[in-house]
From TrEMBL:
GO terms for cellular component: intermediate filament. Gene3D superfamilies: 1.20.5.170, Single helix bin, Vasodilator-stimulated phosphoprotein. Residues 414-435 have a biased composition (Polar residues). Residues 1-73, 387-451 are annotated as: Disordered. Residues 390-410 have a biased composition (Basic and acidic residues). Residues 1-10, 41-58 have a biased composition (Low complexity). Residues 65-376 form the IF rod domain. GO terms for molecular function: structural molecule activity. Residues 327-375 form a coiled coil. This is Keratin, type I cytoskeletal 18.
Amino acid sequence: MPSNSSASMFGGAGGRGSRASVASLEGLRNVLRNETERDSAPAPVVPQTAAPTAAQAPPAAPADDKQTLRGLNDRLSGYLGRVRQLEKENGDLQKQIDDILAKRKAPEGRDWDQVEKPLDDLKKQIKDITKDNAKLLLQIDSTKLAIDDLKDKLEDEKKACKELEKDVDALKKTDEETKQNCKQTQNEIDMVKEELARLEQEHKKEVDVLREKVRDSDVTVEIESQNSNLAEIIHKIRRQYDKLAMKNLKETEEWYQSKFENIKVVEAQNTEVLMSGKSDLKELLKEKRFLEVKIQGLHSMIYSLEETLRGTQVEYGQRLTPLNKLILDLEKELKAVRSQVEHLVENNKNLLCVKMKLEAEIENYRRLIQGMTADTESLDLSLEDALDSDQQKPDSKAPEMEVVKEEAAVKQESAPSDKSTPSDKSTPSDKSTPSEAPEGDAIEAEKVFSK
């Protein structure tokens, strides 16, 4: 095959009909660059790979590009070798995959104990986590209850807090007063220190002046006596001045100490008062916080009690509604019974009045009957006399006898007709007495008439 032909570009990837042809060198270079980038990337697992194809172009290349074509052929041969190597590697990987799949499909290929061990550990972890969650929930509930109690307590604490704030304000005022006193004492101390420094300076000045005088005296003094000793005289003078200096120093120190002792005593008292005030303030602040927490707890307690009270009111209201209905119905029935009882009482009163009237009438009838019995006795006597006279004069006495009989019959008829109305309304015991009497009277009258 000639070197300038493009036949070496055909049959890529095993000579299965793939073809790479370009129209110019730039297009060929681009194709090769793309191929090298694909080679550097991880190749997919496929049984066979095909060479990339490009757009069709004239097969012949220019004569000046022979060297470039040779280099491209060399690169293509290396590419094909690389493809074969990758195919082998893909085959090996495919075999390994098939072996692994075969082992997984086999029942005895997997050790379930090794799989279950981490699962058991995970189950234990899940149980522990659930226990921890339950504990946390209990803690949350307990904290909620504690918060409610604290809220209730806070309400009480707020009330006490106001009083404590008043006490704190008073303590603040006292603290400010103590601070002012401390400032005043500090100012006094500074003044005393300034005075002490001034006195020290004055003392130094005086000492310097005296020393200068001593020096001058040393210079100007003339000793007339021949036996005098200047050293002893100077030594005496120095002793005197030292004594005066020591005396002045002691006096100043005593004054300074006495002054500062008083100041220290006042300052110690003020510091004690200040520390006690601070401790009281801290205690009051602690009490304030505690009372605030207590107030909050009491507020929540009051709120919960109000809610329970509302619930109980609603519940008992629901329970009392049927009872109220029953009470209203019973009240209505009671009113009806009362009205009936009142009506019966009125009827009873009326019956008692009627009974009293009937008893009075019965007594009147008894009196009348007694009067009638007396009349009947008188009639018996008159009838006997009349019969005697009739035996003597029957014709003249017959119409008189008829008149007497008619009067007796009329009396008998009128007496039972008048007694019939009250006897019906009266009791059975009342009926017996008046009815029996007229019957006896009638029998006696018949006997008289029969005679």
